[in-house]
Amino acid sequence: MRFRPIPLSLFTTFFVAVFLLLLFGLGRLTYLEIEKLNERFRNANQQLGDQEVASALTESLNIIDQKAVQLASWEEVIQQLLQPTYYTYWYRHRAKQNRFTSDYILDLALYDAEGNVLASIDTSLLPDHIQSDQLGLTIKISEYQPFVTVIKPVVNRQTNQLLGYISTLNQLMPIIESHHFSNADPATLNIDIEQSGHLSSEQFKQHLHYRLISMPYSQAIQSELADFLFRLAAITASLTLLIFPLAAWLVSRPIMAITYHINELKQYPYKKFDPVKDAPLLITELDTIRQSLDSYHNQLNQVNTTLDERNQQLQHLTQRDNLTGVLNRSAFDDYWNEISQLTGSKKLQTFLMLFDINHFKALNDSYGHQAGDDVLITIAQLINSMLRGREQLFRLGGDEFATILIGDNHRKAMQLAKQCHLAISNYPFEKLGILEPVRMSIGLAQSSTEDDSNLNTLLWQADVAVHFAKRPGYSNIVSFSAELAQHAQGLFSNRNQSVVFDAIDNGRGLVLFYQPIVNLETGHAEYYEALVRISHEDQLIMPSHIFPLVEARSLELDLDRQVIRKICADLKADKIPAGSGVSINLSAPTIVDSDLTNWLEALIPYTGQYKLLIEVTETALITQLETARKNLNKLRSMGFHIALDDFGSGYSSIRYLGTMPVDVVKFDITLTRLLDEPESNPILDHLAQMINESGHLLVAEGIETRSAATQLRQLGFRYGQGYYFGKPKAQIPAKQDYKHALNFSA
């Protein structure tokens, strides 16, 4: 009986299936055993950590309580309660300089038997009045920091008479962190809420989180893992020794034959092979493959010469940016792959430098696409002139450029970035018809010798650095760091994006916080600025995490419509005090949208009872000036007032006052802070005088002290806004009189 040839696929399928099935079973067993062991160790370590943190909290509260008891029995405290004439002097010079106080005690105050403070002190952090039912210890969280308030009675030890009370305000976290921990990492202790009312210790523990230092039983896990791996390796070796001889006899010889033939094809790429002359291989499929390779090889030889010539011609065209002439994104990817192959295991230090033009869309829209193209060409030439011979410039798309530095240290990379930025800053762009300054933000990402960073990782890091380079308070050149990545987690996380987009789509979680704008002459809150927040799972997503996502997806129109709907709802629900008003911030796309007046028609019924302002930033006015002017004039005719926000922070503040229908001018916080610079006060004085004479009302942002409010009122500012008068709140407080804050008589 003659056997037919067995197809290679049947051989391969059978042996590979059996072998993989065995390996999978063993691997799965190993994995499950290790997971069980790890889970037991994690649970044990977590319980120990919880006990440590709970014990540290209890001991810390006992320390605070004992300090308060010691202070209550201090002879000087009793003397002050019996004779409070010199309480203010005692508070400033003695209260915090005795053997009973500690660094963690932020403040203390003495109260008479009725709960009234002996004397009101401006710098005191404690209330002027307490109730007798407040005795004891309470925890309160402010700006993610826990503070403990202790109130103790002070008793005359001789007569056992209640003289009054003593209250201390204490920092809690430094005391907890000073304890010794074996399992919990004190450096990672954190609070998960920003603000809270009075909490018990059990309630506070629910908001206190930490990470474990290490798994104390990791060595045992490793030993278990090594044992499992040894067994797996032994079984694998045994199976290999059994299977290999059979595979070698049936498969190896024909495979070696075809491998030799493939190598021959590689060695002689232009040689013509005749499949008929070669002896057939043992396995049918392999013989068919060899014949197909020969036929295909011969066909390729006929077109290779022509393709080589065409490829050389096309390579230059496909890897160059048509506008600027620099290399494009495709060339960028190829260049990175070449670097990775050339450096191999050497892992040279590499920097990715990302360039991004600030407000390029606004410039492009204002001066036309031709002017925008000229700016891109000029900037590409300026950066190219700064690069050294071995470095290439790439245009990644839009207004983004990049270059890769190989083997440089951080100092040299920063020096090159500064040279590029200086060249762009000093270039006279007015030659291109651009009246505003053109600025560049630069982000640096580093691939160190220990890292195995890929291109996507470096691009993400450089993009994060550029994002912070564009933000106030940062330099125009920013290097990526782990700290920046931590700050950017909320911005770039999928969870935040989902919550923000959900709020924009259907208004879910969108809340408005209101900050008072106070009349500096009367001390009354004239109106309130509406500020966007998003509430999700008892946490607030702040504007710094909202607006970058909105701008990246061009969702400004959708967000503004939701804000207008929310303001209508708040006005209808009487959340805004009658006789005051609301200031609404609108984005650049909304200001020039043809449907703007239709969206705001819902607010017209409230224009008689409330003062309604539309705030427009200078950046919003850069684009489509004529359309913006027409829309703002329509809004004024409908009963709205127009405010120019962030005056002094943009390109052409004075120009907009003369060309735009503006009623109110809001000075940017950077101008308000000129009060702290005596040499700059004349500038602020002349600016305020000029704008007042032009008939505009002045608002100063960023007021944080009574002195600043007084100075700005003397300079002619009608209104003031800042933390001195109040932070943004979801509920407007009932009391709206700020005469006391301005030192007016009631």
Characterization of this structure:
The protein is built from 24 helices and 20 strands. Helix 13 crosses helix 15. Helices cover 48% and strands 17% of the residues. The mean pLDDT is 80. The termini are far apart. With 746 residues, the protein is α/β, with parallel strands linked by helices. The strands form four sheets. An eight-stranded mixed barrel has the order 12-13-15-16-17-18-19-20, surrounded by five helices. Strands 8-9-7-10-11 form a five-stranded mixed sheet, sandwiched between helices. The protein has a four-stranded antiparallel sheet with strand order 1-4-3-2. Helix 12 (455-469) links the parallel strand 10 and strand 11 (477-479).
Task: Output the number of helix runs.
Answer: 24
Proportion of helical residues = 40-55%
Overall, the morphology is extended
How many angstroms separate the termini?
118 Å
* Order of strands, widest sheet: 12-13-15-16-17-18-19-20
The average pLDDT score comes to 80
Number of strands: 20
Find the structural class using helix and strand composition: alpha/beta
- Proportion of residues in β-strands: 15-25%
Sheet with the most strands? 8 strands, mixed, barrel
Query: Which stretches are low in confidence, meaning pLDDT under 50 for 5 or more residues running?
Result: none
Over all CA atoms, what is the radius of gyration? 36 Å
